[in-house]
Design goal:
2 domains; pyridoxal phosphate; L-Met_gamma_lys; Cys_met_metab_PP; disordered C terminus; Aspartate Aminotransferase, domain 1; 41% helix; EC 4.4.1.11
Length: 405
């Protein structure tokens, strides 16, 4: 470990670049090596036996651990303020590995009102089949969780900001209530990243990420991360991941994410700055009915955003007058902005949750969980913001004229 990474006062970007690696340990190689190996040999049979018994540290098989993944895990844990981390093959791999580890038939998971579509599907269409109760409550009001908690509640799970409607949850308040009731708190921190929000410092037990998004940052990989205390993360590694999901990240993807972390602070600053400009322009446009962005003073939870976010992120949700039809027409007029799911890429991406990422909800479920049929999700990229605005505003005026006609 370098001297800079040892200091508790070292800045975020410095730790993202240096933590856990000393070039002199690898022949002076400035860039950490990529370990493309499925298995590891032992100096003696006794050594191998000790590793399998957990009596000696070391790598056995890349489905369990790998030096390239280990470096990434150290860095993510450091940036999130956790003791340990686990790299997975996808964000859903992280979520499922965590939940399979800590749940058994008869348990209950209390979740927020809004979840990413695949998370919603896993909870409501997957876990329910194995005798696990899924209870949705509106966690924007912490007292709702207090009323819902019971002896069977083992996990409280939420996203903040939530995908796709940008709802915020008071992490500290919800964590306090959940822990008082004996439940673990799991937070999806994909939208905010550890640069903007660190849930563990606010009382959360475990943090999950789709590292596909901002952590990787370039739209060229699929990956997930789990962060928490060493005991919990070890359990997830050896139970939920090793034996149940097999959701291990490839060393090559770990290398790409480690590289992506080096520019995370720079990229997030641009994402945040541009998103604020875009959100204000959208809010002022006659074709736009409502904008959901934590940085706007009109956002209902703006005060909470200022309390638990260092900045407001690069994600915007908005609705245009005329609902789904005019929203789709708007997206189809775009020239530079790409119609695509995912988020956190260098490219600005736009999508329609009701027909895409959240189509696993029925129309009735979307209405119940505050996902409007005309809602549009925008991931503001790294292009020049004037070019983003020119494309977006160029699509919107025709919608405004049509509505007025």
């Amino acid at each position: 470990m370098t001297q800079a990474s040892k200091s508790s006062s070292t800045g975020f970007a410095t730790r993202a670049i240096h933590h856990g690696y000393d070039p002199q340990d690898e022949h002076g190689a400035l860039t950490p090596p990529l370990h493309l190996t499925s298995t590891f040999s032992f100096a003696t049979a006794e050594q191998g036996g000790e590793m399998f018994a957990g009596e000696r540290p070391g790598h056995i098989y890349s489905r369990i651990s790998n030096p390239t993944l280990d470096l990434l895990e150290q860095r993510i844990a450091n940036l999130e303020g956790g003791e340990a981390a686990l790299a997975n093959s996808s964000g859903m791999g992280s979520i499922t590995s965590v939940l399979w580890t800590f749940l058994e038939p008869g348990d209950e998971v209390i979740v927020d009102k809004t979840l990413y579509g695949c998370t919603f599907s896993f909870m409501n269409h997957g876990l329910r089949k194995f005798g696990i109760t899924i209870t949705h409550v509106d966690m924007t009001i912490p007292e709702n969780l207090s009323r819902a908690m019971n002896a069977k509640t083992k996990i409280v799970y939420f996203e903040t900001p939530a995908n796709p409607n940008m709802r915020l949850v008071d992490i500290a308040a919800i964590s306090e209530i959940a822990k008082a009731g004996g439940a673990k708190v799991v937070v999806d921190n994909t939208y905010a990243t550890p640069l903007l929000t660190r849930p563990i410092e606010l009382g959360t037990d475990l943090v999950v990420h789709s590292a596909t998004k901002y952590l990787g940052g370039h739209g060229d990989l699929i990956a997930g991360m789990v962060v928490g205390n060493a005991e919990d993360v070890t359990r997830v590694r050896m139970e939920g991941m090793k034996d149940m999901t097999g959701s291990i990240m490839s060393p090559f993807n770990a290398m790409l994410i480690t590289r992506g972390l080096k520019t995370l602070e720079l990229r997030m600053a641009r994402h945040c700055e541009s998103a604020m400009i875009v959100a204000r322009e959208l809010e002022a446009h006659s074709a736009v009915e409502k904008v959901y962005f934590p940085g706007l003073e009109s956002f209902e939870q703006h005060g909470l955003a200022k309390k638990q976010m260092a900045d407001f992120g690069g994600m915007i949700a908005f609705e245009v007058h005329g609902g789904m039809r005019t929203g789709i027409e708007t997206m189809n007029r775009l020239q530079m902005i790409q119609r695509a799911v995912s988020l956190g890429d260098a490219e600005t991406l736009i999508q329609h949750p009701a027909s895409m990422t959240h189509s696993t909800y029925t129309p009735e479920e979307r209405a119940e969980h505050d996902i409007g049929e005309g809602l549009i999700r925008l991931s503001v990229g790294l292009e020049n913001v004037d070019d983003i605005l020119e494309d977006l505003m160029g699509a919107l005026p025709s919608v405004a004229r049509k509505v007025a006609a």
